[in-house]
Amino acid sequence: MENKMIKWINNYIDKKMKEGRKFINKINIKEKK
């Protein structure tokens, strides 16, 4: 049970970090123009 939660949390964090990176890339592209 605990392992499932840890896996879920890790996946959630991984997804959020990827979304955050995409967001940061968009901002960086806007600033370069």
Which helices and strands appear, and what pairs or packs with what?
Layout: H1 2-32
- Give helix % range: over 70%
Return Rg in Å.
14 Å
Distance between the termini: 49 Å
Strand content: under 5%
Number of helices: 1
Shape: rod-shaped
Give the integer mean of the pLDDT values.
Answer: 93
Q: Which sheet architecture does the biggest sheet show?
A: none
- Return the structural class: mainly alpha
Could you say how many structural domains there are in total? 1
List the keywords:
33 residues, mainly alpha, 0% strand, rod-shaped
Give structural notes.
The chain starts with a helix and ends with a helix. It has one domain. It is mainly alpha-helical. It has one helix spanning 2-32. The chain is built from one helix and no strands. 0% of the residues are buried. Helices cover 94% and strands 0% of the residues. The protein is rod-shaped and about 50 Å long.
